[in-house]
Amino acid sequence: MSVDAGSLGAGRAGRDFPPVYYAVIRVIDGFSKITGQLISLTMLFLVLSISYEVVARYFFRAPTVWVFESSTMANGSAFMLGCAYALYKGAHVRTDIFWDNYSERTKGIIDLVSYLVLFFPVMITIMVISIDDVIHSYVTGERSQESLWRAIMWPFRAVIPVSAFLFMIQGVSEVLKCLYQIRYGREFEHRKKLEV
Q1: What is the pTM of this model?
Q2: For residues 19 and 29, what is the distance between their CA atoms, to the nearest angstrom?
Q3: What is the average pLDDT across 133-158?
């Protein structure tokens, strides 16, 4: 159940967040949902390329030089780029043994402090450092040493800063949801626990 600006009632309109607040959350969440769904299509590439490798190797005795490395890169990229989608879905690890005992307001405060003190500084650091690595890889024409295919590395390295950026975008939405949770003592939008 989503919360929007009009659902809190006219009597609380003066104390409510402005409509743009809710619009920003909806836009960011929608963006993370779409990017996550697009990134999940890399799994289709993995299935097709690995199936091709199996058929080529075992039926035609003609193994490829590119499937191993491309599947490793595709899987690693999907994992990294999917982090923002996982954050949107609430699928990241949390210690439930303590978490379930806290009030909604306390959960919002803990999450807000965590995002501001840990999450954003770490993501900014990762993004800054990895951008330098991408530039160096591009300028030097770095190639992989893992197989005879010798794939160009800068696109794979570029996944790290792009992932950090997507993660931070979703982090902005999560911070806004924390502020809502602190103010109203309830979740902005209830997310079912994802059991893995």
Answers
A1: 0.85
A2: 16
A3: 94
